[in-house]
Amino acid sequence: MNRSLIALACALAGSGAFLVGATRADGGCGFLGMSACPAVPDPGGDADRDVPIPPPDGKRFGFNTQLYLFSGGVPAALEAQSGANVKAAVQRYTVMWKFLQPRPGDAPLPDGGLAIGELPESNPLHDHDAMYQELVQRGMTPVLTLLGAPPWATDHGSCAAVDRRCQAVAQSNFLFPNRAHLPQWQAFVAALAKRYPKAVIEPWNEPNVRFFWQPTPPDAEHMARLQCAAYRAVKALPSPNKVIAPGFAGITRADASNGNVAYDRYAGTMYRHGLKGCMDNLSVHIYADNKRHIGQGSGFAYRFKVVRDVRRQYGDSSPIWITETGSSSYQGGDGRGISEAEQAEVNKRIYNKLMTMSDVEVAIFHSLRNRPTPNMPTGPEAGGSNPQYNFGFLREDMTPKPVYCAFALKAEEGAAGCAAAKRRAASHQREMRHKQVRVCREARRKAKRRATRGRAQPRARARLVRVCRTVLQQAAP
After folding, report:
1. SS3 content of the chain, % helix, strand, coil (to 5)
2. Which pLDDT belongs to residue 27?
3. How far apart, in Å, are the Cα atoms of 61 and each of 209, 250, 401?
4. pLDDT of the residue at 133
5. φ, ψ at 394 (rounded to 5°)
6. What confidence score (pLDDT) does residue 320 get?
């Protein structure tokens, strides 16, 4: 499994709406937020009410995070417990079909008849089993976002040897299954839902964003086919899971560009092709543009109005799941950068407002930790001006930011919640240092052995030995 490619894709999955729906410093709308938002009323809810965690009336809060699955170095238990300690009830993460059923003759899942907890680490399903198990043990609900058809299930499964373009497209992580392979898509979804009976199934991420629907422009009619096929496959199981809509990007017509499709146009087409009868809840991404003001006349309010207008038009009264929201503590020169303390205030207001809206049931924040993928530059200097890097409630080293501590206070954990997060981060850092030292000592040993035999060092090992000098010097007593 190419984790680095998936990690980059999933990072974009978590924060694309923030870029697509960019707004100016005062919360404007349109391309780069350079135009005023239409006059829209307050979207409801009370941003100033201090709503506890867990929220009342059966509502739920959680994180969009997949550090264990796609970033490496963060154990599943640490990721799950970091959410559980602020009483997060859900965790949303991606499942890539192409890596679980790479050949058409394979079983829908590579479980070999083995139960959760029995697969070897080399099995591509092992990490998904581990993450699911850690969440369920803590009473949390996994939300599985399905993406990435294997090439054989698409129009690019049989590329000619000389067709370089076809071969390049076939490598994409975001190919959609074609109509001829809907039965195989259904079989995969059903097998996944059966293996993870306590998970919620979300059949795609931001299908109205060009990046996540390849290689053709977004196709709402075909997404409706995929959604309904997935829904029927799951509901045919003896104990069916909840199936929510694909996670729509809350793009307005003013925001739509670069092949992305506005929410009202895209979702409207899906409703006309059966969406209402093929989901248990609407799933949509609405960010607040890093603005404290999320009431009347804001971009946040405008996007809610668009979503609700479409729902009303097609008679949909299912509770809304906001499967991505949040803010980023970065110091950019674009007028949207905010401090860590301001991020805590913005996210508290988003949470309070969403959890006091009568039609919103779930609020999932992007993301648990800064630098959600290894592809991003590391360290505070590298990430300081990068909005994608800084959505986390925790810093890259897993220490708590003010927003994590603020939510710990809401969860009645207070200073103890922050202290526990700091202890977990320190323990994790020690484990990572010990692992680095072990790897470096082994590399040095092999390098010395080759040197005594008069053999040249492989380039990769030579680079590793150079990096390890500093690691071993720091580890010296």
Report:
1. 45, 10, 45
2. 55
3. 25, 19, 18
4. 98
5. -120, 155
6. 98
Whether 146 contacts 204, CB under 8 Å? yes
* Measured distance CA(302)–CA(313) in Å, rounded: 17
Residue of 61, 5, 58, 42 lying closest to 408 (CA atoms): 61
Nearest CA among 160, 288, 252, 178 for reference residue 222: 178
Query: What's the whole-number mean pLDDT along residues 455-460?
Result: 64
Question: 303, 21 in Cβ contact below 8 A?
Answer: yes
Residue 246 in contact with residue 203, Cβ under 8 Å? yes
Q: How far apart are CA 472 and CA 50, in angstroms?
A: 49
The closest alpha carbon to 17, from 407, 393, 327, belongs to: 327
Helix ranges (DSSP H) in 119-219: 126-137, 164-170, 182-195
Encode 136-158: b = buried (16+ Cβ within 10 Å), e = exposed.
bebebbbbbbbbbbbbbbbbbbe
DSSP state of 53: S
Domain boundaries, the chain: 3-412, 423-477
Tokens standing for 276? 């209402």
Q: How far apart are CA 130 and CA 150, in angstroms?
A: 23
Burial class (CB in 10 A: 0-12, 13-18, 19+), 472: middle
Evaluate whether 67 touches 118 at the Cβ level (below 8 Å): no
Domain 3-412: CATH superfamily is Glycosidases (3.20.20.80)
- The predicted model gives 50-65 an average pLDDT of 97
Q: Which pair of structure tokens corresponds to residue 341?
A: 């303390």
How far is residue 433's CA from residue 431's CA, in Å, rounded to a whole number? 5
| Helices (H), ranges, 41-170 | 67-70, 76-84, 97-100, 126-137, 164-170
DSSP state of 181: G
Q: Which amino acid is at 283?
A: S
Instruction: Supply angle C-alpha 64, 66, 463, rounded to 5.
Output: 140
Helices (H), 236-315: 263-272, 299-313
Q: Which two tokens stand for residue 381?
A: 């200097």
8 A C-beta contact, residue 96 and residue 126: no
Q: If DSSP codes are grouped into helix, strand and coil, which group holds residue 400?
A: strand
Q: Containing H/E element for 323?
A: strand 320-325
